[in-house]
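dumping this here before i forget
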Amino acid sequence: MSALFNFHSFLTVVLLVICTCTYVKMQFPTILEQKTGFRGFFWKAARIGERLSPWVAAGCFAMGVSIIFY
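structure:
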């Protein structure tokens, strides 16, 4: 089943994209400096990860717990 049709999998993919883009931007800032186009989507995900990092961390923790126990 695709991650687009299962809401739980979709949330997991979105959280992983946000966390990955934030990590890449912190390690290699020149890769995600373009704010438009295809890479602009990843720049926006990295910006969400930077600005909402406590909420993203709580979401990752909750998603990890739900994957382990459900």
